[in-house]
């Protein structure tokens, strides 16, 4: 069997880490196309080296652009590569523009499409990711769902027959990285001004809903700046760009900005932190798996399981909370309870390879 994985952004590379490792030592051929949606070394290259992923077989070098330009350029660039490769499966990941472009290009060429992380829904139609995931699910032949909740959404949309519950491949990567960090005693590499042996909060912000609304962005940044412990802010390029544009100071008060971290360092930084503040889907789940309280600045989450027991708390309107409430939120501890394994047992990627081989159209 020949499978082509199409990836382009940082979270897809983390998932690819698990899938590429699961293909290792099998008789199957696994090839990789990188669309180039993320091109900064800190958002792309370090994940290949850090997670031991083989270099991509094809790099499309698409880069940034409006949604239409970015997605359309990818579609045009993928056609000839798929034509040459003619894989048994095109495997697409998550909900980015790279996911949608690969699914549409492959479906139109009558190549079987499998969607990893199928069935997630925010039901927020102003998010580009919501359209990407719904459209991808409906044109894919095999829907590999991470959770029971996702399976329920797929069934509700008439897609039950094409859906398989495999678990979340991010668990595979996160838990094995955690074990390596703990056994090797790896210290977190944090922005200047943060002592890893003293309490700190770890923060990331990159979603358009937050970064592209100046008022909302200003309230989130002020809330973090008023924290009573330093805030390690791992700044996505889009956050830096918007703050410069709107005159928002990323070094105010408790804020200590730094670059995004390679995966192993991110896991070490979450483990050593008092809590996480984010709008990233992946980081909400990583905080949950690493038993660190998370505060999510969004109106909803696709990863609803993280909300149970208060491990993750949603803040739909950051401006509704004053500095004291924010401080209390960021200092909260969560009582340990038996949480089960809502995201699977850390062997999802092997299940993905098995299902692709068994279901092969
Ligand atoms: C994309 C995904 C989002 C995912 C995120 C993970 C879509 C619609 N969004 O968002 O679902 O959560 O990746 O990080 O696909 N930029 C750089 N260097 C880079 C890449 C981007 O500077 O390597 C800047 C550019 O100014 C670009 C902006 O970031 O315009 C946004 O990049 P883009 O790829 O459009 O989306 P992300 O916000 O990264």
Automatic annotation (TrEMBL):
The keyword Hydrolase does not apply. Its EC number is 5.1.3.14. Pfam families: Epimerase_2. SUPFAM superfamilies: UDP-Glycosyltransferase/glycogen phosphorylase. CDD domains: GTB_UDP-GlcNAc_2-Epimerase. GO terms for molecular function: UDP-N-acetylglucosamine 2-epimerase activity. It is an enzyme of class 5 (isomerase). Residues 28-356 form the UDP-N-acetylglucosamine 2-epimerase domain. The keyword Isomerase applies. Keywords: Isomerase. Belongs to the UDP-N-acetylglucosamine 2-epimerase family. This is Non-hydrolyzing UDP-N-acetylglucosamine 2-epimerase. It comes from Salininema proteolyticum.
């Amino acid at each position: 069997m020949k499978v082509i994985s199409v990836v382009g952004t940082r979270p897809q590379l983390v998932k690819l880490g698990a899938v590429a490792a699961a293909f290792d030592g099998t008789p199957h051929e696994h090839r990789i196309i990188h669309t180039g949606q993320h091109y900064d070394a800190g958002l792309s290259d370090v994940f290949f080296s850090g997670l031991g992923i083989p270099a991509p077989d094809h790099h499309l070098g698409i880069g940034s652009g409006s949604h239409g330009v970015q997605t359309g350029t990818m579609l045009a660039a993928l056609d000839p590569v798929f034509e040459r490769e003619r894989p048994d499966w095109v495997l697409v990941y998550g909900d980015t523009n790279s996911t949608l472009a690969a699914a549409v290009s492959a479906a139109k060429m009558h190549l079987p499409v499998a969607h990893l992380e199928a069935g997630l829904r925010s039901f927020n139609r102003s998010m580009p990711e919501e359209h990407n995931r719904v459209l991808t699910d409906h044109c894919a032949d095999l829907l590999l769902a991470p959770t029971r909740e996702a399976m329920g959404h797929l069934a509700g949309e008439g897609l039950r027959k094409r859906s398989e519950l495999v678990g979340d491949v991010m668990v595979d990567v996160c838990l094995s990285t955690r074990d390596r960090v703990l056994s090797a005693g790896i210290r977190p590499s944090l922005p200047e001004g943060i002592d890893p042996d003293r309490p700190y909060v770890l923060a990331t912000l990159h979603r358009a809903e937050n970064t592209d609304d100046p008022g909302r962005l200003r309230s989130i940044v002020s809330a973090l700046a008023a924290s009573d412990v330093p805030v390690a802010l791992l700044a996505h390029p889009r956050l830096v760009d918007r703050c410069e544009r709107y005159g928002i100071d990323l070094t105010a008060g408790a804020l200590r900005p730094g670059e995004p971290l390679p995966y192993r360092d991110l896991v070490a930084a979450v483990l050593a932190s008092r809590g996480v503040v984010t709008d990233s889907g992946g980081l909400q789940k990583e905080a949950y798996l690493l038993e660190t309280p998370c505060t999510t600045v969004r109106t909803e989450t696709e990863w609803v399981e993280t909300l149970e027991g208060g491990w993750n708390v949603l803040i739909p309107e950051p401006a509704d909370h004053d500095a004291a409430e924010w401080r209390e939120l960021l200092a909260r501890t969560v009582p340990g309870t038996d949480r089960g394994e809502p995201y699977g047992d850390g062997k999802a990627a092997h299940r993905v390879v098995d299902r692709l081989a068994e279901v092969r159209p």
